[in-house]
Write a structure and sequence with these properties.
The complex is a heterodimer. By secondary structure, chain A is α/β, with parallel strands linked by helices. Chain A contains ten helices and ten strands. A six-stranded mixed β-sheet of chain A has the order 6-7-8-3-9-10, sandwiched between helices. A four-stranded antiparallel β-sheet of chain A has the order 2-1-4-5, with helices on both faces. In chain A, helix 5 runs parallel beside helix 7. The termini of chain A are far apart. Chain B has two domains: 184 residues, no CATH class; 181 residues, no CATH class. In chain B, helix 10 crosses helix 12. Chain B is built from 14 helices and 14 strands. The chains are: A alpha/beta, B alpha+beta. At the A-B interface, helix 4 and helix 5 of A face helix 1, helix 11, helix 12 and helix 14 of B.
Amino acid sequence: MSQDTIEAPLGATAERQAVLATSGEAPGKDWVIVTRGIKREYDMGGEIVRALRGVDLAIQRNEYVAIMGPSGSGKSTLMNVIGCLDTPTEGEYWLNGSRVSSMSDDELARVRNKEIGFVFQTFNLLPRATALHNVELPLVYAGVGSVERKRRAREALSRVQLDGRMDHRPNELSGGQRQRVAIARALVNNPSILLADEPTGNLDSTTSQEIMRVFESLADQGQTVIMVTHEPDIARHARRVVVLRDGLIASDERRSAFVEKLGVTV
Amino acid sequence: MPFLDAVRLALQQIWVQKLKSFFTLLGVMIGVTFLIAVVSIVGGMSRYMTEQLVGKIMAVNSFELRHRPNINMGDHDDNYWRELRRRPRIKESDIEPVASALPDGVLWAAVGNDNLAASSRYVSKPKGVTAFTVTDDYFTIKRMAPVSGRLFSPQEFERGMPVIVIGQDVADYFFPALDPVGRELTIRGIPYQIVGLMEKQGSAFGFSFDKFIIAPHKSAINRYVNAHGVIDAIMIQTPSREGLLSTQETVRQVMRARHGLRPSQKDDFSLETSDSALEFWNKIKSYLVIAGVALPAIGLVVGAIVIMNIMLVAVAERTREIGIRKSLGARRRDIMSQFLVESATLSTVGAALGVATGFAFAKLIAAVTPLPAAVELWSVFLGVGIGAGVGIIAGAYPASRASRLDPITALRAE
């Protein structure tokens, strides 16, 4: 643990302690995500690109966090690491008390399946499958039987008010409806975190507000939500905003302070 | 992912791209078509040779003592034919020593046959028939029974009465729309009374086995069938297959002694069994089977390469789908099995179509040519099994490539 990563501004002292406590041992039960000195370097044709340069982040259960930053700040890389799609070059990552940074491919797949629900900017639905089948997919890989799968997928779709659209394919749905299918799919396996990457990037402002309301109500119900965005308008819906710059955390603030700084009234 | 889900997914994929899938599985389909067609035709010919051709000529568990083989299949050199021509004939005087050497329960019959012209008062034109002269046990050995009338009585055999039994073709030609039993057939100016009409024997390769008349060995007709004091064959039948070899050996020793052969000399007569008659056919059959497997194999290799290419294209086209599936928790082996099942299903569907067209092809050949075709159940399983195998082999590389894709890169793919 180098000195300069400690100097990266952290929020509450509890979070700082959670990060510091993780030298090889599991953090407390309340912490869904704890990263300690996460570095990620890419070899781009001989040139080493340092996307993350030592990120310490601790997120508690039931938090609603936005990760912001200009392009190239490393927010997408952080999101991939948190989502277990990518493994850090250096550092430790604890998800729900398990050390993810040392897991094998198959274990990572299992974590993606059970612990993480992805919502992408481009929705990433299977174009030839119906809404219902798209939502069923995580359950297929979880080994859930066909009858139970359909029941849970229907339930998840009705949670996002898509009862009447289950047998429609993505191209028969509006952008907002597609994103709601994606949210239903992300939630169907009851993940620890809902991980959204620019969830409103392809939507108009009205639809964006509609999706934000869905996120808000999920957060109210106790779902941990982490959202990567570059739009302050969207980020202000979150209750905590982490700003990345040049692969390091530049600021980590509670909503009230952040909103004040932007001068936006809620 | 559960196997049935994977198969259903693969079938959907095939259904969505019907034309492309059809061309993909054409190679496997053609390969299996040929395999099934060749196996069916070879199988059909084989059954024909054993049951129809040789089975009709030779009785079960029997052999024939002849001066030279009746059925000559295969290529023989001039020396072989020269040696055959030098052989002495089997004589009437051989019958008694051979018959008395046979163990109890073994049946025997002296047989002679030749083509003779016959005529009846109901048809103006005479016609050739195959005339047999036989001794008492012939009908028992050949398991021939009359459909109307009767066989010869012991007295008729003993005295050589002018009586005959006839085959269906003879009845149809000489006695159109008449009951032949009790009527007369004239051969070389001598009328013979028909006492029985035999059941239908069938045909092989368009060659009818029903153009015969049979008379007692001692009847007048024998002098036209056999030269004086000579017979064509002694037919010997053992009660079971076990006694066949030892009985053959007994007869061989009797004949060698009668012909005064030294131990160094080869037999100058032949003991012909249905097996020895089929020997050459079995040799041809093994070549045909090898060709029948080797030629489709080329088609299957081509089919496998096509499937491998199509699967590689499919993996490239569906990179994003693979990324999505991985982000949702699909493990390497899930992606691997998805593509393996897909290529195996594709190729099994091709093989199944190939089995169907192969049978259609075999039936078509059987319908337009005298070649018979028999559906062999094992070839269906072989064909479908080969199809699945080809699919798995062809799909292995593309599937492993798909499974090793990096989820982030795959998700960014267009």
